[in-house]
User: What shape does this take?
Amino acid sequence: MDSYGAFEEIITQRTEALAFVDKPRFWRSGMPCLDYEMLNELLSVSAANGKSAQSGELAKGLDMWIAAEIRRAGFEEVGIWPRLHMPRALDPAILDFIQPLPAGLAEQCCYQLPKRYKSSQASILGAAYNKQVDVGMSGWLTGPEILISTKTMTSSFGKNLNNRFEEAYGDAKNLKGRHPLASVGFFFLVDSSIRREETSFAKAISMLEKLKMEKDAYDACALLLVDFSAASAHVREKKDGLIPEGISAESFFLDIIELTLQRAAPDAHMVARKLYLNRSM
Assistant: This one.
């Protein structure tokens, strides 16, 4: 089991449970209806294990949730990473090759895949350097269509905010420089205690809004506040009114989905396109 394994079980169990009830729609009243209950469960795993943002485990739970929401929006699962199962990143062309093979040979190929392709992240060549992209969607024919960087921060806000946004700005320019038609996003998850530092909270909001302003930077940015305790995590949802609409998680997914569908071929992502076109119904 890799470092994503603990989150895999939660997503699988929740998906199976929802199969026996009315599955929540991704769209509601024209906006994404995000599964924050799933995110609370994923983040609570790290909180219960005493993991900090520095350990990287919080970010992995966030990555798995974002990927799950992109799949729930109707996009084809094979091209999205991190995948629900190992290997976490895999070109869908490999699976397209395996599927038509005789059953015995296909089974053997699937057995060998995690051994041959162990990478849990996708390394994307940008304009200046390779970048490990946390969440995305790509294929052999299309190239990268979605590229999302995630960051988490639970303390030392005044000390670390500038560094995080300098990194984010450089990454955006690097990725957009080579992939101008990809939908590039930055998702920032922060402990809600940042609100006690008014200057840091205002800076985080301002910087995210500025990262979204330039055409060759991010297409979408999000700030999500989470209440962490010793053994659990609880997302501060949009209805709390703490985050400006333009950098809310709901607006983030709306921007990413709209741009991805606009930039794709008209006959691509037909399930996601149909759900999007009927989003207000």
Notes: Residues 157-178 form the longest helix (22 residues).
